[in-house]
C-alpha cells in the first residue's frame, strides 16, 4: 500500500538512524505486523494495546507531520 510505504520510508530515512534502541526495536516490531493491521494503526487511527507498538506508531506519525 503506497500510503504505508510513504509513512514508513519517511521515518526510516529521516529518524530511524538517530533513534534510541528502544525506538528502533519498537519500529522493527511494527514492521512485523501484517499490512491490514499496519494500515489500521497508521492510517485508520486504531490504537494498539501494546506499548512498544503504540510508541512506534507515534514516532512514524510524528515524522509524517514534519
Describe the structure.
This protein is mainly α and 66 residues long. It has one domain (2-64): Orthogonal Bundle (DNA polymerase, domain 1), CATH 1.10.150.250. It is built from 4 helices and no strands. Helix 1 (2-14) packs across helix 4. The longest helix is centred in the C-terminal third of the chain and has 14 residues, at 51-64. The two termini are 21 Å apart. The model has no long low-confidence stretch (mean pLDDT 91).
Brief sketch in words of this structure:
Helix content is 70%, strand content 0%. The chain contains four helices and no strands.
User: How much helix, percentage-wise, in residues?
Assistant: 55-70%
Number of helices: 4
Total number of distinct structural domains: 1
Cα shape:
globular
CATH superfamily: Flavinator of succinate dehydrogenase
| CATH architecture group name | Orthogonal Bundle
For the largest beta-sheet, the strand count, sense and barrel status come to: none
CA distance, first residue to last residue: 21 Å
- Helices and strands: which structural class? mainly alpha
Which CATH class is shown? Answer: Mainly Alpha
β-sheet strand percentage: under 5%
Given as residue ranges, the uncertain stretches (5+ residues, pLDDT < 50) are none
Helix-strand pattern, N to C? Answer: HHHH
Whole-number radius of gyration? 11 Å
Query: Strand tally, please?
Result: 0
Mean pLDDT: 91
Amino acid at each position: 500500500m503506497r500510503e504505508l510505504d510513504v509513512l514508513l520510508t519517511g521515518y526510516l530515512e529521516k529518524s530511524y538512524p538517530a533513534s534510541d534502541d528502544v525506538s528502533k526495536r519498537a519500529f522493527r516490531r511494527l514492521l512485523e505486523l501484517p499490512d491490514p493491521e499496519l494500515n489500521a494503526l497508521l492510517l485508520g487511527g486504531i490504537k494498539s494495546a501494546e506499548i512498544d507498538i503504540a510508541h512506534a506508531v507515534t514516532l512514524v506519525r510524528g515524522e509524517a507531520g514534519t
